[in-house]
Amino acid sequence: MVEQRLPPLNAVRAFDAAARLGSYVEASRALHVTQPAIGRHVKLLEDWLGVQLFERTSRGVNLTPAGEKYHRKIAAALQLIIEAGREVQPRAAERWLRIMVVPGFAKRWLTPRLEALRHVRPGLKFAIEPNSTFSEVDAKSSDLGIAYGLDGQYAESRVSLICPRVFPICTPAYLASIEAIREPADLARHELIHFDDGEWWNLWFAANGLDIHLTSDLIYVNNDHALSVAESGGGIALANEVLVREELKAGTLVRVLEDQVQLESYRVLTPASEWSEDVEWFIQWLKAELEADFPEARIGVR
């Protein structure tokens, strides 16, 4: 009997990550390897199969028809391997809660609470994956995700958490160095920090009744990066109260105006599978803590 040859499994894993995330960059982050390593693995698999799996674009990668067909099969096979491992693991095996989360929330609200949280739920360990671009959660890589966006943006959102107020912030020194800002329209004349092409600022201006449309020549990686630039005195950024409450208390950041609006919500995304007891517990803890910390940001409160 001729032994069936398996493809290089590390290459299969890299291909699966790139196919799910649509990007070598995101796949490298998910697997904790370099982006060139993902590219080499995919090229190795393409050579092994003798077909092209991806079309490369300026925005990432798209599966070819052959790639789509292959990914459907190997994704199912990888899920079977995961399930087989769960079935044979002893009951005393380590319990992990894998959380994909937008970076600002991960760094500024969730991470400072993790040590205390471990004592609340003994035996449960946490793996935090900051990710600013995800729109769904795959059971192979995460048990749940904490996203921040507009209503209707996430089709698989199961739990809405809070809708925090958004306002402009900067350092006290920066505010003292510029001409007085008395109303939202004055902000358009100043150095505004963007983590997109101007959409979030434009949304904030519109919510304040202003028809102002900005674009940006300099975009930062995510909102946490934009806030770090503001903290270094680089200009004025938009922030929600969840991300900068401690900095406002400490005085390292100040509000430029009292004008504030509710724009987007934090929400939980989960795979289609049923929640485990740990996922159920964590979601309830998360919702209760956020609503206690920010009662005026509760969904339905205006």
TrEMBL record:
GO terms for molecular function: DNA-binding transcription factor activity; sequence-specific DNA binding. This is Glycine cleavage system transcriptional activator. It holds the Pfam family LysR_substrate. The lineage of its organism: Bacteria, Pseudomonadati, Pseudomonadota, Gammaproteobacteria, Pseudomonadales. The keyword Transcription regulation applies. SUPFAM superfamilies: Periplasmic binding protein-like II, Winged helix' DNA-binding domain. One of its GO terms (biological process) is DNA-templated transcription. The gene is gcvA14. Keywords: DNA-binding, Transcription, Transcription regulation. Residues 7-64 form the HTH lysR-type domain. Belongs to the LysR transcriptional regulatory family.
